[in-house]
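Q: My labmate handed me this sequence with no annotations at all. I'd like to see what the chain might look like in three dimensions before we decide whether it's worth expressing. Could you predict it?
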Amino acid sequence: MNAVAGGGTFFTFPALIFTGVPLIFSQATTAVALLPGGIASVGAYRRELAKVRRGQTIVLIAASLVGGILGANLLLHTKQEVFARLVPFLLLAATLLFIFSNRITAALHSHTADKKQQSVVSLIGTSILQLVIATYGGYFSGGQSILILMALGLMGMENIHEMNALKTLLSSCVSLLAVITFIIGRVVSWPQALLMAVGAIIGGYGGASLARKIDPRYIRIFVICVGIILTIYFFLQSP
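A: Here is what I predict for the chain of 239 residues:
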C-alpha cells in the first residue's frame, strides 16, 4: 500500500488499537513494523536514487534524521489522554492530505516545471521544511509521504519515480531514528511488530515493483474511503 499509493498507516495503526494495544504503543509499533518494508522499498528504488544529486540527498537525509528524533521524543512526552484527543485530528489531516495530494503535486509542478536546476536557497528552504515534516512523521506518520512529495515538488523535482524513490528513502530515515527512540523508551509491542514486519518486507519490495506497472487510482480510492471511515469513527470515540 505504501509503495504503490501510500496510506498504509490507515490500516496498521487502527488494527493495533482495535486489538487492545494502547494508543502511543500503537503508533510506536506501527513505526517499527513498517520500517523493514520501507527499507525494502529503498532497495527496489536504487536505480532511481542513483539519478538524484548526492549532495541534495545527504542534506535532506540529515534533516529527516533530526526530525525523526524530535518527533519521537515529542510523542514519548505526550500523555495518553492528550494523544487520544489528537488522534481524530491527525487522521483527518492525513486523510485530507491523501485526498488532495494529486492536485497539490500538480499545482507545484506547474510552478516548478521551468526550473532546470535546484538552487542552494531552494535546497535550504526544502531542508527546513523537511525537518518540520520529519518531526511530524516521527510523532505520527500518517500523511508524511505526501508532505515529503510536496516538499520535493517545491524544490523543483519533476520525475515522479525519482521523487517516489527519494520520498521512500527520507521516510525510512525518519522511521529509523523514531524506531530507535521508541525502542529505548520501551513503547513497542514486539509480538505484533514482528508479525506485521514480515508482511511489510514482502509488501515493501513487491509494492515498489508494482508501482511502476499499475494504475494506483483504484488503491487510492480504497485508502481514501478507509481514511474517511476511520476519521469519523475516532471522532465519535474521542473522549
